[in-house]
């Protein structure tokens, strides 16, 4: 099982009404939730660990997870409200901007008592990251969990940095490097690198991330494709063209991350031992699979990753 841990966010996607006015359509999202659904839709066992509201948005999160075959065994419910995010799209690039509403929401209140004392051996990978590592107390809870699970299973980290939510950059940067150093897979975007290491330039920033120690480091660059490093060396994979053009980029990075993990699981490489000696060929195959999944996600509105039938 790939177990995703972190926030859930009700994304409000802009839509145009018949009269030409703008309205917002609610869509269950959040980076870890999207990644879990991506994994499950690609035929790999997936689960979600987090605290969800008992409001009707929380009910929608649970229903979406279960409808897509994601285990909710590690889901805890709370009376606090759900996290909300309103999305603004750039009409030319399709890139998304977000306005988050996170005050005292259920997912950010994830506490140590909500975490199981141990995870079964069937959990091959713990996937984590995004805004849940910014908002306390969830940030401390997830950090403790990740450090506890070091050496027991694959740790796959996607920081998915949202600068508007980071009140203390130095503290966040320290947490990022601490968690990256114990991770097995570090998945970054070029925007993440630019924020983390301003002034270094792309190549030096990538080298800095690799020096932290993860066996596999992946950097997505939108239409410029993906570069990655593994124990055998570096690989570069072009971006796949979205069929029919770009609708938006919401959830594309999560679909990519989930597809990479699913590909590695399906090929027998999602283990500490395998990733510690991963070949360039096996990494390239996983990245190509991920690029195709991201392209399909970009071709339709909202976080809607592909099913395995769309990629076979």
CATH level-3 fold name: UDP-N-acetylmuramoyl-L-alanine:D-glutamate ligase
Work out the count of structural domains. Answer: 1
As residue ranges, the low-confidence spans are: none
Strand order of the largest sheet: 5-4-1-8-9-10-11-12-13
Architecture per CATH nomenclature, i.e. the level-2 architecture: 3-Layer(aba) Sandwich
> Fraction of residues in helices?
25-40%
What is the CATH superfamily classification?
Answer: Ribokinase
Folded structure, characterized:
The chain is of the alpha/beta class. It has one domain (2-8, 28-80, 106-307): UDP-N-acetylmuramoyl-L-alanine:D-glutamate ligase, CATH 3.40.1190. It has ten helices and 13 strands. A nine-stranded mixed beta sheet has the order 5-4-1-8-9-10-11-12-13, sandwiched between helices. It has a four-stranded mixed beta sheet with strand order 3-2-6-7. A hairpin with a 2-residue loop joins strand 12 and strand 13. Helix 5 (190-196) packs across helix 6 (202-211). The radius of gyration is 18 Å and the shape is globular.
Summary?
This protein is an alpha/beta fold and 312 residues long. The chain is built from ten helices and 13 strands. The chain starts with a strand and ends with a helix.
How would you summarize the topology of this molecule?
Layout: E1 2-5, E2 9-16, E3 22-29, H1 31-41, E4 46-53, H2 56-67, E5 70-78, E6 83-89, E7 96-101, E8 125-129, H3 138-149, E9 154-158, H4 169-182, E10 185-189, H5 190-196, H6 202-211, E11 216-220, E12 226-230, E13 233-237, H7 252-266, H8 272-275, H9 280-298, H10 308-311
Parallel strand pairs: 1-4, 1-8, 2-6, 4-5, 8-9, 9-10, 10-11
Antiparallel strand pairs: 2-3, 6-7, 11-12, 12-13
């Amino acid at each position: 099982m790939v177990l995703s841990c972190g926030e859930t966010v009700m994304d409000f996607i802009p839509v145009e009404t018949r009269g030409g006015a703008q309205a917002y359509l609610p869509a269950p999202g959040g980076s870890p939730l999207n990644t879990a659904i991506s994994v499950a839709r690609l035929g790999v066992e997936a689960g979600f660990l987090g605290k969800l509201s008992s409001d009707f948005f929380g009910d929608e999160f649970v229903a979406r997870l279960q409808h897509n075959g994601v285990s909710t065994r590690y889901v805890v419910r709370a009376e606090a409200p759900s996290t909300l995010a309103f999305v603004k799209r750039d009409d030319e690039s399709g890139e998304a901007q977000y306005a988050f509403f996170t005050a005292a929401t259920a997912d950010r209140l994830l506490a140590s008592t909500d975490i199981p004392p141990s995870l079964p051996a069937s959990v091959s990978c713990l996937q984590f990251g995004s805004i849940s590592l910014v908002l306390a107390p969830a940030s401390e809870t997830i950090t403790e969990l990740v450090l506890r699970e070091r050496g027991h299973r694959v740790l796959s980290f996607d920081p998915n940095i949202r600068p508007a939510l980071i009140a203390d950059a130095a503290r966040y940067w320290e947490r990022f490097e601490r968690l990256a150093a114990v991770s097995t897979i570090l998945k970054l975007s070029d925007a993440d690198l630019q924020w983390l290491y301003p002034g270094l330039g792309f190549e030096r920033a990538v080298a800095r991330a690799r020096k932290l120690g993860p066996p596999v480091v992946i950097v997505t660059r939108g239409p410029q494709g993906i570069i990655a490093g593994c124990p055998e060396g570096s690989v570069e994979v072009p971006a796949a063209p979205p069929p029919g053009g770009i609708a938006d980029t919401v959830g594309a990075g999560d679909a990519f991350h989930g597809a990479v993990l699913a590909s590695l699981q399906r090929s027998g490489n999602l283990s500490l031992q395998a990733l510690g000696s991963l070949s360039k060929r096996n990494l390239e195959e996983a990245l190509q699979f991920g690029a195709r999944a991201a392209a399909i996600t970009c071709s339709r509105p909202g976080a809607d990753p592909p099913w395995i039938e769309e990629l076979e």
